[in-house]
Amino acid sequence: MIRFYFHPTPNPAKIALFLEETGLAYEAVPVDTSRGEQHMPAFRAINPNGKVPAIVDTDGPGGKEVRVFDSTAILIYLAEKTGQLLGAPEDRPELLSWLLFIASGLGPFSGQAVHFQFAAPEGLDYAVNRYRREAERHYQVLDDHLSGRDYIVGSSFTIADISTWGWLDRASRVRKGAEDPLGPFPELKRWFAGVDARPAVGRARALAKSHAFKTINDEETKRALFPSNYPAASAQGV
Prior knowledge:
Layout: E1 2-6, H1 10-22, E2 26-30, H2 41-44, E3 54-57, E4 66-69, H3 71-82, H4 92-118, H5 125-145, H6 159-168, H7 171-174, H8 186-196, H9 199-208, H10 219-225, H11 231-235
Parallel strand pairs: 1-2
Antiparallel strand pairs: 1-3, 3-4
Helix pairs in contact: 1-3, 1-6, 1-9, 4-5, 4-6, 5-8
């Protein structure tokens, strides 16, 4: 059994989609990051970095219980465990390249673009411009790559598509104010529509709505989400 610790944000959404695509048995465990539950000792024992997603596989290698954290690591672990969504063996180097492109590029730049447009104090125009344009540059890399392709790697749907979908699903926030966020990237928009139409996507989205997560952006939320902005709280791990 997989215990899946989640919040309705892009990185956990990737794992939800994988689980729904493969039909792997799992128990969903909500972690309300706006209430600071990710900083509690019980969760830090699963992910020392205090972030979702994370999983505990009660039937890991050798029948032992194992923890896995970070969405890319989880996707690779589960794909290898199930033998699903890995693509052809000869495509493995390409698969790893695109997974790390998302993990080290598209994901972080998209996340920071959202942060500086929605959460940071006003007046930080340089940061807004820097992160939004870098996110858009990554969109363009993908758009160019997807010309004439149905999938990011090889000839089948893989965890590279899942990882990319998780962040492209938030394009309207990354490109705040854009009437058609993926409009300037037609190949990427076509690819996204194809992934978004998969039945498992609807089930993954339903999971995100299965718990009443906190939505008020008050002082507690800010301290929980951005503890480094509050040195005393950060030093105490909250």
